[in-house]
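Fill in residues.
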């Protein structure tokens, strides 16, 4: 009896033990499944906020950068006394005439105390370290006149402020360029005034079409041929920023009587001769097509809108000046730039009309800096530019072209890293 009772008790204990083991096993199994579920859920949530960048590693991209929720070009300038410049006048790339701090311009240090505030969002200041990390193994080309050089120098000075390992050279026919060696990131500036090839023309002894019309000399502009200085840029760079405009309305450079612009297409003069505004449309059509044919799939192409001048009291050669030390009001902006007034500075909006028309249907992105820049009559070198006349066309550095680059970077991030 005692043995039988012992056996029954042992069976109960064994049964309880087996039941307990089963429960423990089931608990551990469920705990493991739950843990895996939580880890997987966390990974999925993380992957939404950290986009995998195939060329530049996995770096966090903000909501603002992923998609552009507003028009960054429409806003107001807000004075921010705590705002500091992102580089100083010791950056060696700054052209002497643009170094307003070194040249003791009265408001030079206050120029960067103004922040552009779009009406519907904020424009983030681009982080040079993050930019270098994201855009490793990338080539960026600025192509255009001295205003694109103004922008290029701002970009270079910002990046040089965080890394000293830089090689200076001239890639793909550039006027100047830099490779940031630690990141294999190259930025270059290709100087071209008209985008199209041009040079001096003089009448020959032959009875040609232009000679029969009485032309003796001028400038030959090939509307369908890019200038040599940037012809290799589209096939070399991953990102391109183009501009043109100032030289198309420059009677001091191309006097319509003494040295007119004479336009050629397919090697032959355009007859009857056409004015510069008509030729600009032709050049834009040909150059946009040229870039789209030459750039690799996935390359990013920007066309920057026209940078405004701020001459008051006459043009640069008529005693015009820009002595303001604060941004303009909305009323003054319209007074200076309205097409209806047809004033000294109307060039900016005229050029933009041609540009908007030419870019329709293209794969270019518009970098619209005109309106924000129209307010900044205070940000030019003015009398401190080292010229015989006021420089009311170029910009002080550091200065407003830093904001142009903020806009460039936020648009670029939105394009390249959209979900």
């Amino acid at each position: 009896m005692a043995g039988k009772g012992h056996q029954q008790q042992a069976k109960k204990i064994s049964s309880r033990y087996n039941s307990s083991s089963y429960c423990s096993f089931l608990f551990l199994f469920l705990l493991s499944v739950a843990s895996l579920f939580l880890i997987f859920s966390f990974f999925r949530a993380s992957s939404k906020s950290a986009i995998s960048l195939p060329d530049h590693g996995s770096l966090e991209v903000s909501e603002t950068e992923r998609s552009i929720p507003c028009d960054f070009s429409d806003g107001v300038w807000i004075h921010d006394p705590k705002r500091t410049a992102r580089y100083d006048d010791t950056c060696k790339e700054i052209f002497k005439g643009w170094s307003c701090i070194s040249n003791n311009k009265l408001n030079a240090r206050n120029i960067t105390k103004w922040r552009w505030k779009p009406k519907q969002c904020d424009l983030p200041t681009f982080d040079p370290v993050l930019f270098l990390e994201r855009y490793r193994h990338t080539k960026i080309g600025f192509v255009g006149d001295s205003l694109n050089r103004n922008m290029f120098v701002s970009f270079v000075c910002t990046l040089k402020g965080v890394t000293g390992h830089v090689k200076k050279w001239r890639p793909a026919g550039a006027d100047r360029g830099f490779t940031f060696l630690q990141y294999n990131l190259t930025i270059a500036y290709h100087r071209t005034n008209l985008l199209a090839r041009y040079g001096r023309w003089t009448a020959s002894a032959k009875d040609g079409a232009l000679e029969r019309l009485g032309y003796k000399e001028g400038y030959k502009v090939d509307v369908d041929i890019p200038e040599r200085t940037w012809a290799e840029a589209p096939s070399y760079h991953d990102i391109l920023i183009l501009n043109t405009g100032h030289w198309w309305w420059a009677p001091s450079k191309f006097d319509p009587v003494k040295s007119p612009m004479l336009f050629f297409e397919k090697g032959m003069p355009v007859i009857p001769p056409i004015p510069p505004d008509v030729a600009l449309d032709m050049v834009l059509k040909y150059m946009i097509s040229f870039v789209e044919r030459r750039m690799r799939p996935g390359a990013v192409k920007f066309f920057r809108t026209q940078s405004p001048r701020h001459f008051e009291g006459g043009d640069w050669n008529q005693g015009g000046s820009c002595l303001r030390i604060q941004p303009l009001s909305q009323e003054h902006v319209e007074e200076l730039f309205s097409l209806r007034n047809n004033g000294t500075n109307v060039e900016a909006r005229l050029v933009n009309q041609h540009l908007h028309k030419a870019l329709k249907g293209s794969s270019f992105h518009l970098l619209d800096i005109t309106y924000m820049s129209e307010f900044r009559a205070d940000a030019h070198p003015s009398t401190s530019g080292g010229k015989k006349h006021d420089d009311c066309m170029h910009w002080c550095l550091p200065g407003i072209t830093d904001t142009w680059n903020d806009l460039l970077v936020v648009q670029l991030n939105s394009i390249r890293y959209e979900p």
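The chain has eleven helices and 15 strands.
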